[in-house]
Amino acid sequence: MRLLRTREGVVVLLLVTLLLLIGIFSAASPYFFDVRNGMNIGRAVSIIGIASAFTTLLMIAGGLDLSIGAVMNAAGVVAAMVLAQTNFGVPGAIAAAVLVGAAVGWINGVFIAKIGINPLIMTIAMQFILKGVTLGFSASASKVIVDPAFLAIGQGYLHLGVAAVPMPLLWMLLSMLALWFVLRFTQFGKWIYAVGGQPSACRRAGIDVDRVIIRLYTLSAVGAALAGVVLAGIQGAGIPYGAGNELSVIAAVILGGVSLSGGVGLMEGTLVAVLLVGVLKNGMTLLGISSVFQMVAEGLVLVVALTLDRLKGRL
């Protein structure tokens, strides 16, 4: 239990658990401990990882966003439609998707920070609104993407001699590295921890708490939009009715050591948690465990994450 008392201790505990899982699955399956399978795990966790990186900042500040999955789907559809119906090309498609995410996040932030609507209620409402709008604009049909430059975002590889690194994994690592730097070395990062820990004290100190919150909700949705772009590149289409990933993202962030009450968390923890869940699902697949039990396992991971968060508050 001592490890739960510090942010670094949580990361160490997660690392030990990750290594144990790797050891167990390596012994159980001859196909697990392989460079190619490692890259497959990286690709599989990349979408959740990108969104989790941005959501980590929001949840450290005490926020919560359940519209993430809807933003991903909307961003993919918007990017696909811009590619098909305009001459803006890949940069225009990505910019349009990011603008949609930024607009959604800004609206969430304003209603939560300025009007005082509960984040859970506001973002669930936005989820329904965005799903309806996306289905309406797309006529409830997937939008196929054929542009090779766009497809390379999700299907390309960075060749490093001994291994071919999937581009989605690279985007995830770059996102986490950039936001780790923000949290650790910038004034904005200090404000994020302060707002999550003592918002009233921040207001007395002259920090514009509302502006910080609005920026973080905007960033969270931008991250979801970027994840949606990468997902569309992987799938080769913008799919308006795709399954929401918001609970998987939130579970990874909480498992990584970010407290639901805010003020606590590290980007390193989110990274290890994302990899841990990916290793668990991949190992279960290689062992022939059905998707039904994998869903149960993912639910149990969320329960464990919430339990650990509760225990940390009592230590």
From TrEMBL:
<feature type="transmembrane region" description="Helical">
    <location>
        <begin position="92"/>
        <end position="113"/>
    </location>
</feature>
<dbReference type="GO" id="GO:0005886">
    <property type="term" value="C:plasma membrane"/>
</dbReference>
<protein>
    <submittedName>
        <fullName>ABC transporter permease</fullName>
    </submittedName>
</protein>
<feature type="transmembrane region" description="Helical">
    <location>
        <begin position="213"/>
        <end position="237"/>
    </location>
</feature>
<feature type="transmembrane region" description="Helical">
    <location>
        <begin position="157"/>
        <end position="183"/>
    </location>
</feature>
<feature type="transmembrane region" description="Helical">
    <location>
        <begin position="286"/>
        <end position="308"/>
    </location>
</feature>
<feature type="transmembrane region" description="Helical">
    <location>
        <begin position="249"/>
        <end position="279"/>
    </location>
</feature>
<dbReference type="Pfam" id="PF02653">
    <property type="entry name" value="BPD_transp_2"/>
</dbReference>
<keyword id="KW-1133">Transmembrane helix</keyword>
<feature type="transmembrane region" description="Helical">
    <location>
        <begin position="120"/>
        <end position="137"/>
    </location>
</feature>
<dbReference type="GO" id="GO:0022857">
    <property type="term" value="F:transmembrane transporter activity"/>
</dbReference>
<keyword id="KW-1003">Cell membrane</keyword>
<feature type="transmembrane region" description="Helical">
    <location>
        <begin position="43"/>
        <end position="61"/>
    </location>
</feature>
<keyword id="KW-0812">Transmembrane</keyword>
<dbReference type="InterPro" id="IPR001851">
    <property type="entry name" value="ABC_transp_permease"/>
</dbReference>
<keyword id="KW-0472">Membrane</keyword>
